[in-house]
C-alpha cells in the first residue's frame, strides 16, 4: 500500500468508531480515489465480521480434559525436578539428611582408634581404662573402642563406645552408665553431646 500512513490510521479509527467528523470526510474523499485503501478497509471489515461470528462458539464440556489426556506423559525426571524446585526447603533437608547419614555411617565404621577422656588419675592398660581403688574421678569418662574397670569412684557419667562398661567392677558411679554398641545409640549420644556443648558455649 503506497498511501500515507495517515490514511491507514484513519481507516482504523473509523472501524473502531473513534474518528472525528472532519477526518471521516477526509477518509471518504480518499477512499473514492484509492482502490488500495478501499480493498484494505474491505479486508479489515471481513476479518472483524469473522471474529465476531466466532465469539458465540462454545467448546465441548470435556475439551480441556481431552486435550490434557492427549498430551504425552511427563517424564519422571522432569516431575522430580519440578517437585524439588517447588519445595526448596524440603529438598535441602533431604539432601542434608542423606549426606549426614553417609557421614555418620562411615564414621561409625571407620572410628576404630582407642581414646579416653583426660583425667589424671585414670590408669590405662592396653585398651582397658581402670579407675583405681581409693581414687575418685571427677567429671564424665568416655572410653572409645576399649573397656573400663571401675574399682574406685566416678563422680559423673561413664560412656563406653564399642567396649564393655564393667569388667568385674566393684566401684561406684554417681552418674549414668551407657554402653554404645549400636549405631543409633552412638548417633543419639553425639547429638546430645553436641547439644550440651552448644548450650554450655
Characteristic terms for this protein:
single chain; 7 helices; alpha/beta; 201 residues; rod-shaped
Characterise this structure:
By secondary structure, the protein is an alpha/beta fold. Among the domains are: about 5-50, no CATH class; about 115-200, no CATH class. About 50% of the residues lie in helices and about 15% in strands. The protein has helices at about 5-15, 20-35, 35-55, 65-70, 75-85, 90-110, 185-200, and strands spanning about 115, 125, 130, 135-140, 140-145, 145-150, 155, 160, 170-175, 175-180. The protein is rod-shaped and about 125 Å long. The two termini are about 85 Å apart. The mean pLDDT is about 75.
Q: What is the percentage of strand-forming residues?
A: 15-25%
Averaging pLDDT over every residue, what do you get? 77
State the end-to-end distance: 83 Å
* Computed Rg: 43 Å
Order of helices and strands: HHHHHHEEEEEEEEEEH
Tell me the structural class. alpha/beta
Net shape:
rod-shaped
Widest sheet: strand order? 1-5-8-10
Biggest sheet: strands, sense, closure?
4 strands, mixed
- How many helix segments? 7
Number of strands: 10
Organism: Priestia aryabhattai (Bacillus aryabhattai)
Protein name: Anti-sigma factor RsiW
Keywords: Membrane, Transmembrane, Transmembrane helix
InterPro entries: Znf_put (IPR027383)
Amino acid at each position: 500500500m503506497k498511501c500515507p500512513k495517515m490514511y491507514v490510521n484513519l481507516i482504523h479509527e473509523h472501524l473502531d468508531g473513534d474518528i472525528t467528523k472532519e477526518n471521516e470526510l477526509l477518509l471518504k474523499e480518499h477512499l473514492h480515489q484509492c482502490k488500495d485503501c478501499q480493498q484494505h478497509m474491505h479486508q479489515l471489515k471481513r476479518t472483524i465480521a469473522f471474529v465476531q461470528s466466532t465469539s458465540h462458539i462454545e467448546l465441548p464440556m470435556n475439551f480441556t480434559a481431552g486435550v490434557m489426556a492427549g498430551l504425552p506423559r511427563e517424564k519422571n525426571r522432569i516431575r522430580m525436578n519440578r517437585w524439588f524446585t517447588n519445595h526448596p526447603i524440603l529438598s535441602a533437608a533431604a539432601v542434608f539428611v542423606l549426606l549426614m547419614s553417609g557421614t555418620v555411617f562411615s564414621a561409625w565404621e571407620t572410628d576404630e582408634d582407642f581414646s579416653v577422656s583426660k583425667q589424671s588419675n585414670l590408669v590405662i592398660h592396653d585398651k582397658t581404662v581402670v579407675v583405681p581403688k581409693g581414687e575418685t574421678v571427677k567429671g564424665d569418662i568416655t572410653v572409645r573402642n576399649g573397656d573400663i574397670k571401675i574399682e574406685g569412684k566416678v563422680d559423673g557419667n561413664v560412656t563406653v563406645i564399642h567396649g564393655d562398661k564393667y569388667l568385674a567392677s566393684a566401684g561406684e558411679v554417681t552418674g549414668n552408665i551407657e554402653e554404645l554398641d549400636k549405631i543409633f545409640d552412638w548417633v543419639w549420644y553425639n547429638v546430645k553431646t553436641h547439644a550440651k556443648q552448644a548450650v554450655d558455649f
